[in-house]
Each structure stands twice: as structure tokens, then as C-alpha cells.
Amino acid sequence: MPAFSALYIENQCRHLPRVQDILKKCEALPHISCERYGEVFNPKAQNFRLQKKRPALVLAKKHQHFVLPAPAGYGFGNKNSYYFSHLLNCPYDCRYCFLQGMYRSAHYVLFVNYEDFGKKISETIEKCGHEPSYFYAGYDSDSLALEQYSQFADYFLPFFKNVPQATLELRTKSAQIRSLLKHKATKNVIIALSFSPDQVSKQLEHRVPTFSKRIAAAKKLQEAGWSLALRFEPLIYHKDYKTDYQDLFQRIFSILDASKLHSVSTGLFRMPQTFFRNIVKLYPDEALFAGHYDTQQGLSTYAKEIETEMLKHCETALFDYIPKEIYYRCGTGCETT
Fold first, then answer.
1. 3-class secondary structure, 17
2. Omega into 234 within 30° of 0, i.e. cis?
3. Which residues, 6 or more positions from 279, have their beta carbon under 8 angstroms from its beta carbon?
4. Residue 280's closest CA among 46, 40, 48?
5. Which end of the chain has fewer surrounding CB within 10 Å, N or C?
6. How much is the average pLDDT of 169-177?
7. pLDDT of 1 strictly over 50
8. Can you tell me the distance from the alpha carbon of 295 to that of 293, in angstroms, rounded to the nearest whole number?
9. 114-127 vs 152-161: helix axis angle to the nearest 10?
10. What is the DSSP-derived secondary structure letter of residue 27?
11. pLDDT digits (tens, 9 = 90+) for 234-288
């Protein structure tokens, strides 16, 4: 269970049943009222690294920008691709994640007015007419990591079941699948699971559940009929990356049925230069940020020869297990999460 330091509640949403449920689950914590979440989240003089050890949870209402166009190169690459963010910041602590360079605060902000999100999603679907549309819920955070509090899936799974022309992707490193298993598998909901080799995960993916817990959860979901996707993003360059990624793929595909996967993707490390500089200041001794980086279109990335070598090797290894038709590369126009 996440160790929140406190709950901050916007006065305008304290009365909502969803908020009251969360308050009951966190009765032992301080409950602090505020007018706007920005009072807690936006002040300049904040220590992200210190806050990350025990962040607060802020319950708030979102008022605009409910649905945004997906960044270029993110996701399946389809027309009519969008993302929406019910949560700012992530309970996990992955060193390569751009969120640490984007936000001043490590506190979590949960936007609880799901009905307003649903209204804007419905309007967006309507604008697409008869064309399919795609919605990503894991761009600014992990879709399921706070599910025991947020009940996000409990609301949006039935919602998307009623709009079969739209597809929802939930991207996660979580093993919390209880809320998913309560529901019958929905064809137009994709559970996208992110995996890294053990060496990478132990060094860079702090607080993330173990591989064994996550792959066991993935197997349960697949057996329950859920459509799974695998995301190997970002590919992390290190001395033993060739054998590490080969071993990772072998372990995964010895457990999951590759023929039932929706899609598989790889992505390279990429981050806006300003975010990259901010994170280096936070973690100046982090080996991940030492060397091998170029700048391409305002993004900090690996040197081109490293990117080419990694993609070639990992794709060759992947195609031993999956058909090329379900594979894509996540483009360089989007950041690493």
C-alpha cells in the first residue's frame, strides 16, 4: 500500500461519494482542506527527491483539457489517438521517467470527477463519426497502481464497454488486477504491460512489483480473456543488454501465449532536454545519465549507432516469438515513462 504522508482535499470535491470512500480508506492520515490542488502541487520551493519518499495524495477536480491528442509516435500510431490523465505523478520511482523532470512536486494528484472525463471522451468519440478512436490512460502515470483508492478501472471499464468503436489502453507496471478480474473481459480494452530485464528493473525501477508477481498477474488476465499488450519501453543500454533482453523475452513467452497478444512494442530512451537536465540535477550520481547521449529534435537520446544496434538486436530476438504483424516501434516524438 502506498505510504501517503497526508490527504489534501479540494473543498469543491470533498462531498463526492468517490472522495468519501477514499477518506474512509485513509482515516489514519491527516485530512487537509485546500481550495485548489495547485496550492500543494505547484509551489516552486519543493524538494522532489525528498517528497518522493513519502508523498501526499491530493484529491481534486479537473476543469479543462480532459482529452488531448496523443503525442506523435505514441501508441498504435492510429488516426484519432488521444490520451487522458486522471492522475498526475506515479507511485513508482523509475529513474528514466520524464515525470521527474516535468513536475516540481512528487505528490500525487487524483482527479476524481470521472463523469466529466467520460463526457469529454464521449464528445471526442462522436466527433470521430464512424471512424475508430483510441484512448491512452497511462501517459502521465501508471493506470492501475493506485486502483485500490482510485477505482479508476471500475468506472471506465463499463464506460468503454458501451462504446465498442473506441479502444482504451491501460498501461501499467502494477500487479493489482483484482478490479480487472471483477469484470468480464472487454474486447476494446487493452492491458499494456511494461517489462524490463531484472538488472534494469532492480537498478532503475524502484517500488515496482517483482517480475514474478507481474507475469503471474499477466497470465491470470490472459486466462480470463483480457487482451494483453507488451511494452518494452524504454530499451536500456547496458553492458549485458543483449543477453538480458533475450532472457527476458524467453521468460515472458514461456508463460504467456504470444498468439493471443494484441500488440508488442519497443521504444528507445528519449526525453526533452529540459526534463533531462532537471533529472540529472536530482540524481547527479545516477549511472544511467552518464554518457551515450545525443540530442535529436530537442530530445536527449542514445547515440544513433547505439539505438540502431539495440533495436536490431531486440527486434530479431522478439521475432523468434511473435509475428511481425503485431509489432511496432514507439516513435521518438514521445517521452519515456
1. helix
2. yes
3. 95, 100, 101, 271, 289
4. 48
5. N
6. 96
7. no
8. 7
9. 30
10. T
11. 999 999 999 999 999 999 999 999 999 999 999 999 999 999 999 999 999 999 9
- On whether the CB atoms of residues 222 and 177 are closer than 8 A, the answer is no
Q: What are phi and psi of 142, to 5 degrees?
A: -85, 130
Rg (CA), the chain: 20
Helix (H) or strand (E) holding 126: helix 114-127
Q: Which three cell numbers stand for residue 228?
A: 494483453
Amino acid at 56: A
Taking Cα atoms as reference points, which of 226, 165, 234 lies closest to residue 195? 234
Residue 332: predicted pLDDT: 55
Burial class (CB in 10 A: 0-12, 13-18, 19+), 126: exposed
Band the pLDDT of 336: cuts 50, 70, 90.
Answer: low
Grid coordinates given for 321 = 516469438
* Distance between CA atoms of residues 179 and 118, nearest Å: 19
Closest CA to 167 of 61, 267, 65, 70: 70
Per-position DSSP letters for 235-304, written without gaps between them = E---TTHHHHHHHHHHHHHTTS-GGG-SEEEEEE-EEEHHHHHHHHHH-TT-GGGSS-EEEETTEEEE-H
What pLDDT is attached to residue 9? 99
Domains defined for the chain, CATH in brackets: 7-329 (3.80.30.30)
Taking alpha carbons only, the member of 138, 142, 56 closest to residue 94 is: 142
Q: Which residue has the cell 533482453?
A: 245
Q: Write down the pLDDT at residue 334.
A: 53
